[in-house]
């Protein structure tokens, strides 16, 4: 039996704490160290969860040769510098979404990952729900045929997280709902579509609630001395090199009815379609001009976050490439950048791939 993987947690906030709880339940993992720029929080988590080492900062944790892998769960602005330093220090990395605040810095993470030979996995738990796994099986079996159009989104009505904190500051977050929850839907949809190459993007963003301190939700801690300079709604059309199209709609705050609040994904294939809305899933096809609809039965299994974190550990142990690759994180960042650019310029943005 191999020795346990020694894991360090960078960022002891809401999501860092969630990772910590999940990893503690996984065999073969020793959550050995933690750090946070607000040290008392790291100390508190260490006390609560019996973590032996509290590092004063990420640099000393990354220099600690006894640590094999790290989780990076800090504000988006710090993702790139910490992920790059972690990879250069020989650590495997589980990186919270989005990969980075822009695609230029995300590209640098990809380069560091390639040079390091270490694992870099993006944390997109939505790929791991029983429903998403069941749908992926249907797609892989050919049931949908060629997927030529998709519609996805997540329209929160009153969900601005941490008004005035890093969440709502462009320089720290890279954007609003688009980069926060839109990136999850984008990631899930591209995965289901078989990762076609995006070639052009057209989009608009709006900030109608946040600047007026309206539409505030429960996630994060507001900082009323802070500011709000990100969007609170975004809409976009993305075209792919195989001719497929994807429309994406996300908001933190909007005047929409309660029934529209669940995250959704509709896939239109040549043989059948599929819809995921919240926790329900339907397959739809036409037979002799009659619409046939059936429910998608979620695959049995553990919680999506547990499966995600187990996958990270399994990839390290077996030397496998994770399903949420560094390239997928970079591609998401390219699309997000292009939506912001299109909104600024009012024009379609063509994506050129190196
Ligand atoms: N996968 C998901 O469903 C999901 C959900 C929410 C947030 N997230 C992502 O997780 C990350 C953290 O979000 P959160 O909600 O936990 O935020 P948070 O504000 O609750 O926690 C962030 C923590 O990082 C610490 N920190 C800030 N800068 C640091 C630095 N340079 N070094 C070390 N620690 C630092 C802060 O003190 C804070 O404790 C973000 O990237 C966010 O997008 C993912």
UniProtKB/TrEMBL annotation:
Top-level taxon of origin: Bacteria
Organism: Paenibacillus plantiphilus
InterPro entries per the UniProt record, alphabetical: Gfo/Idh/MocA-like_OxRdtase_N (IPR000683), Gfo/Idh/MocA_Oxidoreductase (IPR052515), GFO_IDH_MocA-like_dom (IPR055170), NAD(P)-bd_dom_sf (IPR036291)
EC category name: oxidoreductase
Keyword tags: Oxidoreductase
Start and end residues of each Gfo/Idh/MocA-like oxidoreductase N-terminal domain: 5-124
Enzyme nomenclature, EC number: 1.1.1.369
The organism's taxonomic lineage, starting at the top: Bacteria, Bacillati, Bacillota, Bacilli, Bacillales
Annotated coiled-coil segments of the chain: none
Keyword Coiled coil in record: no
Pfam families linked to this entry: GFO_IDH_MocA, GFO_IDH_MocA_C3
Annotated ranges, domain GFO/IDH/MocA-like oxidoreductase: 133-273
Signal peptide stretch: none
Protein name as catalogued: Inositol 2-dehydrogenase/D-chiro-inositol 3-dehydrogenase
Listed SUPFAM superfamilies: Glyceraldehyde-3-phosphate dehydrogenase-like, C-terminal domain, NAD(P)-binding Rossmann-fold domains
Any one GO MF annotation of this record: oxidoreductase activity
